[in-house]
């Protein structure tokens, strides 16, 4: 069944709900994710974890960019394995590195995000994108390659929204950005989720990500070590000791393994 998209300001109904059961994925013989079971409910879910934990691998597997085993259900229906079929079900991924066309304008980049829909609908969504991202309207004719990192990330998110996804996956949207831009991008992710698109986000800015998220999962070496409502996770010992630099009487191995995580 094809997903019949609605612009995200109106909220896509039914809201996307992803059930992942016994997921395994990796690269060739190298298995990164082992028997992972998790649930992505409507709202904003953040995936946390140290470098190399398998966070990007999880998003790639869900987007069909790498092979996976196990069951993945989107609103109760099997999620296909092929990327184009997954996109047609309303799943969009904003990968790390943004992958914009630097020699094309903001408008042209955004239009590419809506290339599957008829011209009139594409124009309507472009107008919607400019309403949702007013900064981009001011820069409509600017070449994407000449924009700041934060602005480019905004274009990448807006372009993904041009496909009116019901599940938006964001891989480290704040990577390499100045603190103010980090706040802005995370606020955008929160707004998108509040408006009805389910958001699954990988983030290294643990504190800020948990502040905008509804729920979180902590991944270490391909398996889950913690999960729960974002507010509770932020107060949990796993997160506080490993990611937020809280004092602990015993030195946790988790803390050592995750020293590179930024708790901005
Ligand atoms: N294309 C690839 N081929 C082989 N191994 C890979 C490939 N991409 C990632 N890996 C390995 O898979 C493991 C998980 O990587 P992944 O990128 O999913 O981690 P991550 O949690 O997203 O970390 P980071 O925060 O550093 O991006 C790592 O050991 C990594 O070296």
Task: Provide tags for this entry.
264 residues; alpha/beta; Rossmann fold; six-stranded mixed beta sheet; four-stranded antiparallel beta sheet; 11 helices; 10 strands; 23% strand; globular; disordered N terminus; disordered C terminus; binds adenosine-5'-triphosphate; BCAA_Transport_ATP-bd_LivF; nucleotide-binding; ATP binding; ABC_transporter-like_ATP-bd; ABC transporter ATP-binding protein
Helix/strand layout:
Elements: E1 18-27, E2 30-40, E3 44-48, H1 55-63, E4 68-74, E5 77-78, H2 83-88, E6 91-94, H3 106-113, H4 119-132, H5 134-138, H6 149-161, E7 167-171, H7 179-194, E8 198-202, H8 206-212, E9 215-220, E10 223-229, H9 230-235, H10 237-242, H11 253-257
Parallel strand pairs: 3-8, 3-9, 6-7, 7-8
Antiparallel strand pairs: 1-2, 1-4, 4-5, 9-10
Bound molecules: adenosine-5'-triphosphate.
Family: Belongs to the ABC transporter superfamily.
Protein name: ABC transporter ATP-binding protein
Keywords: Amino-acid transport, ATP-binding, Cell membrane, Membrane, Nucleotide-binding, Transport
């Amino acid at each position: 069944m094809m997903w019949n998209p609605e612009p995200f300001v109106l909220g896509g109904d039914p809201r996307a709900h992803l059930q992942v059961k016994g997921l395994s994925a990796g690269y060739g013989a190298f298995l990164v994710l082992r028997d992972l079971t998790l649930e992505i409910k409507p709202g904003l879910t953040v995936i946390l974890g140290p470098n190399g934990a398998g966070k990007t691998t999880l998003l790639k597997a869900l987007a069909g960019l790498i092979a996976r085993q196990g069951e993945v259900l989107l609103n109760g229906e099997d999620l296909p394995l092929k990327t184009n079929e997954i996109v047609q079900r309303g799943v969009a991924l904003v990968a790390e590195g943004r992958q914009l066309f630097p020699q094309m304008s903001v408008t042209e980049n955004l239009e590419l995000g809506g290339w599957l829909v008829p011209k009139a609908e594409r124009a309507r969504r472009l107008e919607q994108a400019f309403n949702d991202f007013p900064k981009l309207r001011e820069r409509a004719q600017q070449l994407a390659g000449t924009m700041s990192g934060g602005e480019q990330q905004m274009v990448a998110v807006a372009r993904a929204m041009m496909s009116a996804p019901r599940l938006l996956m964001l891989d480290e949207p704040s990577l390499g950005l100045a603190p103010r831009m980090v706040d802005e991008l995370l606020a955008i992710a929160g707004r998108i989720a509040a408006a009805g698109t389910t958001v699954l986000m990988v983030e290294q800015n643990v504190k800020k990500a948990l502040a905008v998220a509804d729920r979180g999962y902590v991944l270490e070496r391909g398996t889950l070590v913690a999960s729960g409502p974002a507010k509770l996770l932020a107060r949990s010992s796993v997160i506080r000791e490993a990611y937020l630099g809280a004092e602990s009487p015993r030195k946790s191995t988790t803390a050592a393994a995750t020293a590179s995580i930024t708790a901005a």
